[in-house]
Amino acid sequence: MFWNAFVPVLLAAIAWPQAGSDPQPAQGSIASEPAKVHDLRVPTHLEGLDLVIPAQERLVFYVELDVAVLGKIRVGSLVITSNVEEYRAGLPRRGERAEDQPFSQRGFIQAKAAGGYMGYNVEHEINARILPQEWPRVIVHDYQSGSENRRREVMYGTRQGKPMSWYRRDRHCENCERREHFVSGLFSDAKHCEGCKRAEHRDWDAPVMQPIPEGALDMISAIFLARELVRTQTGRVDFPLLDKETWWDLSMVLGESAFIDTPAGTFACRAVKLDPRPPKPGDDLNEFKGLFGIHGTLSIWLDEATGVPVMIEGLVPLGPMNLDVAIVLAEYQDTPVGFKPADPTR
Ligand SMILES: [Zn+2]
Ligand SMILES: [Zn+2]
Q1: In angstroms, how far is CA 86 from the centroid of its own chain?
Q2: What is the DSSP letter of 179?
């Protein structure tokens, strides 16, 4: 079937150097030790809790939908990679000193989902760059292509001492003179297209800059913070979760322990529940689409020793229904020492 055939092709297409397979320098050349990059620790507003970006890590997940009649269907894959690299920011702005910067490296997290179901196909990529500067501290690009095309960009950080965000999205162009936006009907002259899913008919909206609450984080950062919740055994944290131009009050709560079976093995895990509350009473919680369209409460199962995410569970809307979706670990590379399948019989 389409979605089963699709996944191996996709996985094969994503080339990535294997751990320990660095090519040897050619004879006669000078072998230089690559600079050792460490995990990046970014302070947050939460007491005793840093956001930690692994220096180099790759996690591959399968995305499975639970369809009542058909059972579990694999509809795609999600690849989460993270990297840390040296970052040379520009000269400090007026009133800022270089030594005020809390860290000097740049963190890069990429979450790339791809898949399809019943003729609908999607490639969805969310990138978060975490930078050692006040503004922007974080840049998030959220790009979807395939059957539907959508681009969103968020930046946040501190400007003149105030927490701020910048947001822009694209939408179908409503009217312009560009001939490439014109379509002609069978019995009509060419006129401006009134709405389609073509990426090339979309334009950026004017960006919105606004004050945000102190300590707000984006969804990708929140998932990486969940790792630290497990590692440090922190019971619960609350912070504003930035989602496009708005934010939700998010509680992240450390939950039960369980062995979780995945294609990559069985892991001893702790659950972390991400529970969003609407910013205004009466707002519709279904509007919350935190990650790849998953809405409402999100459960993440993370390895209890290292905090590596092993399974993500939630609901996705499909027409009038909600379907259970599970994102389960299939492969891992360059994970922290100590991340390994557990022996559930011990
Ligand atoms: Zn146009
Ligand atoms: Zn169009």
Answers
A1: 22
A2: G
H or E, element range at 140 = strand 138-146
Whether the ω angle into residue 344 lies within 30 degrees of 0, i.e. cis, is no
Q: Which amino acid is at 128?
A: A
pTM, two decimal places: 0.83
Cα 178 to middle of ligand 2, angstroms: 12
Q: Which residues surround ligand 1, an ion (CB under 5 A)?
A: 173, 176, 181
Distance 184 CA to ligand 1 centre (A): 14
Q: What are the pLDDT digits (tens) for 115-158?
A: 987 778 889 999 999 998 899 999 999 999 998 899 999 999 99
Condensed to tens digits (0 to 9), the pLDDT of residues 30-78 reads: 555 555 678 999 999 999 999 999 999 999 999 998 877 778 889 899 9
Of 249, 305, 303, residue with least CA distance to 274: 249
Instruction: Show me where the domains of the chain are located.
Output: 2-12+41-333
> How would you classify the pairing of strands 182-183 and 162-172?
unpaired
Structure-block tokens of residue 145: 């292509």
What's residue 239's pLDDT?
Answer: 96
Distance 148 CA to ligand 1 centre (A): 18
Please tell me the number of the ligand nearest to residue 181's CA.
Answer: 1
If you measure from the C-alpha of residue 106 to the centroid of ligand 2, how many angstroms do you get, rounded to a whole number? 38
Per-residue confidence at 278, pLDDT binned at 50, 70, 90? Answer: confident
Cα-to-centroid distance, 245 and ligand 2 (Å): 25
User: Phi and psi (nearest 5°) for 94?
Assistant: -55, 135
Between the CA of 193 and the centroid of ligand 2 the distance, in Å, is 5
Distance (Å) from CA 182 to ligand 1 centroid: 7
C-alpha–C-alpha distance, residues 126 and 130, integer Å: 13
